[in-house]
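Title: Prediction job returns without error message
Component: structure pipeline
Severity: low
Priority: P3
Assignee: unassigned

Description:
Job completed but the reporter wants confirmation the result is attached to the right record. Sequence as submitted:
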Amino acid sequence: MPGRQPVPARLRAQLAGVTTAHGPGRVRRQIAGVAVVIGLGAALSACGTSGTGLAQQACSHVNASIALFARSEHQSDPTTAAALKQRAYLELRAALPIAAQAAFHDGQWQALMTTVSESSRVPESSLVSALRAQCRDAGSSPFGQPGPPSSIPPPAPVSTSP
C-alpha cells in the first residue's frame, strides 16, 4: 500500500497465510523441495556411472553365455544342447543394452557393443574369441596398467620353533 496505509480487514484475512512464516503451504513446499533434491541427486548420480563398470556388468552376461555355449558343445543329447545354446544366446542378448551404455559412457567399449550386437547375425562360436578378449580388457585395470602397490606390509612370518 502506498504511504504505509493500513490494510483493510478483508484483505488482511486473505494475506495472513501469505505473510506468516509457518503457513499451511510451507510444509508442502518443503516436501516438494526435498523430493526435487532427491530426484536431482538420483539423476546426477546416474551421470557418474563409469563405462568400465558397465562393461564389467555386460561381461558377466557374456561370460555366462560363453560358459553355457561351451556346455552345449559337450552335450551328447541334441535337445539339451539346443536348450543350452538358446540360453547362451539369450544371456548374450541381455548384455547388449548394458554394453551399449558402456560404449555411450566410454568409447573404448564400442568394440564390445558391436561384437555383442553381431550375435543376432553371426554364430556365437565365431564370436567367442573376440568376446573373451574384450571382456578380459574389462576385467583389467584402466589402460591395461597394473594397480598401485599396496601400502599394507605383508604379514610377519610365524616361527614354529619353541
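Comment from assignee: result matches the submitted record. Residues 51-139 form one domain.
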